Automatic annotation (TrEMBL):
This is NADH oxidase. Pfam families: Rhodanese. PANTHER family: FAD-DEPENDENT OXIDOREDUCTASE, PYRIDINE NUCLEOTIDE-DISULPHIDE OXIDOREDUCTASE. It comes from Rhodohalobacter mucosus. SUPFAM superfamilies: Rhodanese/Cell cycle control phosphatase. Residues 15-103 form the Rhodanese domain. Coiled coil: none annotated.
Length: 105
């Protein structure tokens, strides 16, 4: 499974690359720690809401620690979203390496 590191994501965001950052956490988790510009589809709704995503666009999936994002990437890949990867370590890794103002939980 393809992974994107927090540093790679930061570089891509800063350079204005065109991709979808998909947050598959539960809605109550968005308020604990959030990244601006994400598309929010909780993992348990992903199967029924895939039509909201573009199969031709790269998708980087994030969750709290990377586990659910990995499951989401597998589901997306099985459904033709071949340009998908997970954020290694999730939003907690982002908080640790890029933005310490975001709480880890």
């Amino acid at each position: 499974m393809k992974e994107t590191t927090a540093e790679e994501l930061k570089e891509r965001m800063d350079s204005g690359d065109d991709f979808t950052l998909l947050d598959v956490r539960e809605p109550h988790e968005y308020y604990m720690a959030d990244l601006e510009g994400t598309t929010r589809i909780p993992f348990d709704e992903l199967n029924s809401r895939m039509d909201e995503l573009n199969k031709k666009q790269e998708i980087i999936v994030l969750c709290r620690s990377g586990s659910s994002a990995g499951d989401a990437v597998e589901l997306l890949t099985e459904n033709g979203f071949v340009k998908s990867s997970r954020l290694k370590g999730g939003i907690n890794e982002w908080a640790a390496k890029i933005d310490p103002s975001i709480p880890q939980y």
